[in-house]
Design goal:
mainly alpha; 9 helices
Length: 202
């Protein structure tokens, strides 16, 4: 079961990411280079890329039925926190602002709903929960903080912001920083929730 779920997550992860890139290129209004930069400006894409890489590296090797990737320092839990945030932010803040159709709808559901749910299930079934510690949350926060700094700097030059709640042009820097602080608090709550849950069900 573990191997099958690992293969499934690696497969649909790469399918969704590559298909989304093709759709963005097909419907681009800027150059391919600019479109590619914008593609990698989405937290959804970067986080699903982390998921795809993690489960690809975890694929069982020939002659070895066990995945090769170790879970040092709560790597799986950190990825689960990130992809949970992707799913929740989409469902709460973004789903109502656009209505994708056709293959775009399929890809959207994979990236924001199906993959997060499958990763959470995998975490629940296979994470070594006794190794998790609350102090790890600060380490896990490095990725979203770097991401936030990246999109704010890039947006200052390109005037492109991947999400409306970080759009400095529309809301101003002060409001965006307040929104970002709220998301950081949300991150801490989700991460602490996973660690607490892990201690209960380990």
């Amino acid at each position: 079961m573990k191997n099958k779920l690992t293969i499934l997550l690696a497969t649909i992860g790469w399918f969704a990411i590559l298909t989304q890139y093709c759709l963005m290129v097909e419907n681009r209004v800027t150059s391919i280079l600019e479109t590619t930069i914008r593609f990698f400006s989405f937290f959804t894409i970067l986080t699903n890329l982390l998921v795809a890489l993690y489960f690809t590296l975890s694929l069982p090797k020939k002659g070895n039925s066990n995945p090769s990737t170790s879970n040092k320092s709560g790597t799986l839990t950190a990825i689960t926190v990130y992809i949970t945030i992707v799913g929740l932010v989409y469902q709460i803040l973004l789903r109502q602002i656009w209505e994708p159709k056709g293959i775009q709808w399929v890809v959207d559901e994979l990236l924001h709903s199906v993959i997060p749910i499958l990763v959470i299930i995998f975490w629940y079934l296979y994470e070594d929960k006794k190794t998790m510690e609350y102090k790890q949350i600060l380490k896990w926060l490095i990725y979203p903080l770097i991401y936030l700094i990246f999109i704010l700097i890039c947006g200052n030059f390109s005037n492109f912001y991947p999400y409306p709640f970080v759009n400095v042009t529309d809301f101003g820097l002060k409001k965006v920083l307040i929104n970002s602080a709220g998301l950081i608090v949300f991150f801490f709550c989700i991460a602490a929730g996973y660690i607490k849950l892990g201690k209960v069900i380990k």
